[in-house]
Amino acid sequence: MNALRNRVNLIGRLGAEPEVVTFDSGKTLARFSLATNEGYKNKDGEWQENTQWHNITAWGKTGELAAKMLNKGQEVALEGRIVNKSYETKDGEKRYGTTIELNGFLIISLKNQDAK
User: Fold this and answer.
1) Sequence-distant contacts of 82-89: CB under 8 A, at least 24 apart
2) Going residue by residue through the chain (116 aa), what tens digit of pLDDT does each one get?
């Protein structure tokens, strides 16, 4: 059952090119945003679309591969886990954030296909 704990699967489009950071230790981190869309009809029967943005992080080889293969607007399926973080600003204000830590991905659309 551990394989089912804290697991998330998303299909969406990249909002930007993956950004890669290399730390002094040599460890790499890739970051990008992913938009997921869901459609529904409102109470008047009009079609509505709701877009959710997700912050994605990928460490090491997975991050390097994502940075090399993924492009803005490309549709991908990804699997990862939810990570909640908190930090304090210079002014002492507490901030919170949620990211999806990438375990793997599958490219659905080719690089040169237009976003829908």
Assistant:
1) 82/6, 82/8, 83/57
2) 677 789 999 999 999 999 999 999 999 999 999 999 999 999 999 999 999 999 999 999 999 999 999 999 999 999 999 999 999 999 999 999 999 999 999 999 875 555 44
Closest by CA position to 108, among listed 79, 80, 73, 76: 76
CATH superfamily of 2-107: Nucleic acid-binding proteins (2.40.50.140)
Which tokens sit at 59?
């460490």
Domain segments of the chain as ranges: 2-107
